[in-house]
Amino acid sequence: MAITRTGSAKWQGGIKDGKGEVSTESGALSAQPYGFSMRFEGDKGTNPEELIGAAHAACFSMALSGQLEKAGVRNASIESSSAVTIEKEGDGFTITKAHLTTRISGDGDEAAIRQAAETAKTGCPVSKLLNAEVTMDLTVG
Q1: Phi, psi values for residue 64, rounded to 5°
Q2: Coiled-coil segments, which residues (predicted)?
Q3: Sign of CA dihedral 85, 129, 116, 55
Q4: For residue 44, what pLDDT band results from cuts at 50, 70 and 90?
Q5: Using one digit for the tens of pLDDT, what is the confidence trace for 112-140?
Q6: Which of 17, 18, 28, 117 has its CA 20 to 30 A from that of 104?
Q7: Which of 39, 61, 57 is CA-nearest to residue 99?
Q8: What is the pTM of this model?
Q9: Does 62 share its domain with 109?
Q10: Helix (H) / strand (E) containing 24
Q11: What pLDDT, in 10s, does the model give residues 63-113?
């Protein structure tokens, strides 16, 4: 079973003076502004790295809940964040790290909880995506 979800972006102008909008198929984000200053200079608005971080934290938390259930942990509560780091490399930029921070409580063995978190860290689909093949359909004009 394959499920496809869509995010979209519009951009107008140059890299530093341009402006963009990002939206999601569900409408959770609709024409949310983003731009160079929001990404690299700390101005208010969103950027690709924080969106990846939110997706990573959400995916990891869901995967972790499944692993905790398998481990017999009950009444689980999970709070997670993912800090995504972008660094200058050569003529461009590369996302070099995604650091998960999570707080878990629940009724169960601590060693089982720790193992569930390790399994979820490497097994959640967004963790896997961070090393995925990137493909593209391109239209010019």
Answers
A1: -65, -40
A2: none
A3: positive
A4: confident
A5: 998 999 999 989 999 898 876 667 565 55
A6: 28
A7: 57
A8: 0.89
A9: yes
A10: strand 19-24
A11: 999 999 999 999 999 999 999 988 898 998 888 889 999 999 899 988 899
Encoded tokens for 32: 């949310």
Write the CA distances from 109 to 68, 89, 113, integer angstroms.
Answer: 10, 43, 6
Inter-residue contact 83 to 99 (CB < 8 Å): yes
Radius of gyration of the chain (CA): 18
What are φ and ψ of residue 101, in 5° steps? -125, 125
Phi-psi region of 57 (alpha: psi -120 to 50; beta: other; left: phi over 0): alpha
Count of structural domains, the chain: 2
Mean pLDDT of 31-46: 89
